[in-house]
Design goal:
Layout: E1 6-10, H1 11-25, E2 29-33, H2 35-39, H3 43-49, E3 55-58, H4 61-69, E4 75-78, H5 88-91, E5 96-100, H6 103-112, E6 118-124, H7 138-146, E7 151-158, H8 173-188, E8 193-195, H9 197-202, E9 210-213, E10 237-249, E11 254-255, E12 261-262, E13 267-272, E14 289-292, E15 295-300, E16 308-311, E17 323-327, H10 333-339, H11 344-349, E18 357-360
Parallel strand pairs: 1-18, 2-3, 2-9, 3-4, 4-5, 5-6, 6-7, 8-9
Antiparallel strand pairs: 1-10, 10-13, 10-17, 11-12, 13-16, 14-15, 14-17, 15-16
Helix pairs in contact: 1-3
The structure holds pyridoxal-5'-phosphate.
């Protein structure tokens, strides 16, 4: 028998999240961002759940081939373009659309032309300062790309460094200026795609013709502390397991490696089949909740490679075999992440290969 731990992917929630984000996107085209194996949910599942999206957005060239193999027939955006000239052997025949974010990529295209029909997007640097051309370079880059035989410029993309509610939009002038320049590009050109989840939710003034929606499709609000229910989205993943053993511990006795927890009262300690080798971060502090049959129980002691301990003293019905939710509908993954000092996406992407995935229609 396999260990009882499972990552349950809620296909119905993923579908409903797409509908919720579609309502928010209005009449803009929606790219479903499925990089990193669909934020840990599995690309093949994402292809099925997001069949109503207008396109998929990925990072790996290999994911273009995978998505096509899984039956995706619509558009595919390559968020970081291509990496080597030979990538174009896959990109063009598979009908993927790379962003072009620097001069080297333009030169690779020029050297490899002519193309049959290669659709590209100009990447603008709006202040993240990782990829892209400055806004004022857009006309020049567009003209140079358009001059390459077989290359078609589909639009302009940017990725904001800040788009969260606490960001004061009326604040830093350089940011506002950049937004104005982007707005100018959006009015002048077609195919502008500026917003990720956060910008689509909190910066309606960003506009454009398309949005790239990632984290919120998986039921996570981009800003920790904003409940996902307020956006009408639900967690796409539940990490669940079971209690393997229960120990009755006397006052003064300790639990786990390093004896980090010492019982102050007669205690029932549950041993849960989930450890850091499953992707639950060892840095998650004691006191963090798990959900056991209708109520929470706090973590105690150190998280080990294969197990963690929970205090069941105030949970008399929990016993060996009880189901444990590590994160999901009752324990938001955002909260677990915040306690561990990270963001939900890191936890979702970090489920270890040894954890079996199952699906339900919830
Ligand atoms: C990951 C990514 C997105 C999606 O962002 P979310 O915050 O997950 O919605 C959009 N654009 C680019 C370029 C990305 O890398």
């Amino acid at each position: 028998m396999a260990r009882p731990i499972q990552a349950v992917i809620h296909m119905g929630s993923l579908r409903r999240n797409l509908e919720a984000m579609r309502r928010l996107a209005g009449n803009r085209m929606l790219w479903a961002v499925v990089k990193a194996d669909a934020y840990g949910h599995g690309l093949e599942r994402a292809v099925r759940a997001f069949e109503g999206a207008d396109g998929l957005a990925v990072i790996d060239i290999f994911d273009v081939e995978r998505a096509r193999r899984f039956g995706w027939k619509k558009r595919i955006l390559l968020l970081q373009g291509f990496f080597r000239p030979e990538d174009l052997d896959v990109v063009e025949p598979m009908g993927a659309e790379p962003v072009v974010h620097n001069e080297e990529l333009i030169r690779m295209l020029e050297r490899r032309a002519p193309f049959r029909d290669l659709r590209v997007h100009v990447k603008i640097n709006s202040g993240m300062n990782r990829f892209g051309f400055r806004p004022e370079e857009e006309p020049r880059v567009r003209a140079r790309l358009a001059a390459i035989p077989g290359v078609r410029v589909m639009g302009v993309v940017t990725h904001f460094a800040n788009a969260c509610p606490e960001w004061d939009y009326g604040g830093p002038v350089p940011v506002r200026e950049q937004m104005e320049r982007l707005g100018e590009i959006a009015r002048r050109t077609s195919g502008a795609c500026f917003a990720n989840s956060a910008a689509a939710i909190w910066l309606p003034q960003v506009g454009g013709d398309a949005v790239r929606i990632g984290i919120s499709l998986y039921g996570v609000t981009p800003e920790p502390g904003v409940p996902s229910a307020s956006l009408g989205i639900l967690p796409g993943m539940t990490l669940r397991s079971e209690i393997l053993a229960v120990q009755n511990v006397h006052p003064g006795e300790s639990v786990g490696y390093g004896s980090r927890f010492t019982a102050r009262r007669p205690s029932r300690i549950g041993v849960v089949a989930c450890g850091f080798a499953d992707g639950y971060l060892r840095s998650t502090p004691p006191g963090s909740p798990v959900w056991i049959e209708g109520r929470t129980a706090p973590l105690v002691g150190r998280i080990a490679m294969d197990v963690m301990m929970v205090d069941l003293t105030d949970h008399p019905t929990a016993r060996v075999g009880s189901s444990v939710e590590l994160w999901g509908r009752n324990i938001p993954v955002e909260d677990v992440a915040a306690r561990a000092g990270t963001i939900a996406a890191e936890l979702l992407c970090g489920i270890a290969p040894r954890v079996p995935f199952v699906e339900d229609e919830d």
